[in-house]
Amino acid sequence: MSVEQPLWRALTVYRVLTLLYALGLCVYSYDDYDHPLGAVVYMAVLTLWTALTFRMVCSAERCTRRFLVGDLGIAVAGILLTPLVDNHDRIADGTPTLPSIWTMGAVLGFAIKGGWRWGAWASAVVCAANVIERGRFAQDTIHMLMLVWVASVAIGYVVEVARASERTLARALRIEAATRERERLARDIHDSVLQVLAMVQRRGAEIGGEAAELGRMAGEQEVALRTLVSTGLVTPPRGADGAGGPDTAPDLGGLPDASGASAPPCPPGPERSDGGPCDLRALLAPHAGSRVTFSEPGAPVLLPAGVAGELAAAVGAALDNVRVHAGEDASAWILLEDEPDAVMVTVRDDGPGIPEGRLADAEAEGRLGVALSIRGRLRDLGGTAEWISAPGQGTEVELTVPKASAKKAKQKGEAAR
């Protein structure tokens, strides 16, 4: 709903109430008019006009410029008709005009439709008509006209500000949605295409000959694609947990294992289609091997399928970092903990550790392993990713997803479907 829609509804109510007020004044002053029949005819026209145009002021689309001009014409006609039906003594004493405060509704229509400039011009027309009706600049007339002018200009300005704010909010929401989609695509590309290109480059250099040339071309494409992915992305904010935290993000990330296979985001079955609970242990177990030790609770660790898949993908990215930066012979340990209010996965290795400032430099170079594949995933899940590392003492990555955030992510996914 537009931010100005409540103003149109209020104007609709205002026109009806002020019409009743004007009719009451006409009845009350009927015997004081010099030509009461003329006043009755005008009030009948005003009532019929208000009734026929009731829906015209319900929205900006219905309230056309032609209608506004006609509405203001009815009000001005009533003001100028007042000296013809009322006596001059009553007019000199400040007796209300025939349309009375109904006129303000016509002016407000201009202000809401076109902003403060339209409101100012409509107020000027009403002011001129009132001066002509009184025949002079009376003090009470000036006070009343200034009130009309200030009110219309103020409301018109508020409407303009509200419209600008609405446009800014809509643009910000579009940018946020586009940024999140780019980050999601960048994570997928990093987890698949970039790692394949990096492997081709590495294996080509090892084999030599024509394979080396193929590896060189793959490396060039990997750099170009990485630059394309990183261009235009909003750098994820560095929270207290991960400020300067490792971008062990493998630029030349290896594949999960020598054969290139990796664990699927979620096991096939109904859990994947309906977003139901998924046992995180089943997603992390395939990572276990001769160099990777997996420790899990004795009971299932249930999370919504989408949340479990993203968390498992982040663990896979962390293990990729171990293989690339700590070497194929490095050992890693995965610890899955099911806390009352959160699920925590810790990935630890016995590699050389991360030099201070290395991750910030990697992110600035467009190496998005940590920025998107790990930290970005956890941020989208409402969780945190923390790195603990010291040169020569290995690296430990703690991935935490609050269960309350997991439930919200599940509800958001269901609402999207």
Automatic annotation (TrEMBL):
Domain of life of the native organism: Bacteria
Keyword field: Kinase, Membrane, Transferase, Transmembrane, Transmembrane helix, Two-component regulatory system
Domain Histidine kinase/HSP90-like ATPase, first and last residues per copy: 310-404
Biased amino acid composition, Low complexity: 235-263
SUPFAM superfamilies xref list: ATPase domain of HSP90 chaperone/DNA topoisomerase II/histidine kinase
A single GO molecular function term of this UniProt record: kinase activity
Keyword RNA-binding recorded: no
Domain Signal transduction histidine kinase subgroup 3 dimerisation and phosphoacceptor stretches: 181-202
Residue span(s) of domain DUF5931: 1-170
InterPro entries: DUF5931 (IPR045975), HATPase_C_sf (IPR036890), HATPase_dom (IPR003594), Sensor_HK_TwoCompSys (IPR050482), Sig_transdc_His_kin_sub3_dim/P (IPR011712)
TM ranges: 12-30, 36-54, 66-85, 105-129, 141-159
Residue segments, region Disordered: 234-278
Gene3D superfamilies: 1.20.5.1930, Histidine kinase-like ATPase, C-terminal domain
Name of the protein in question: Signal transduction histidine kinase
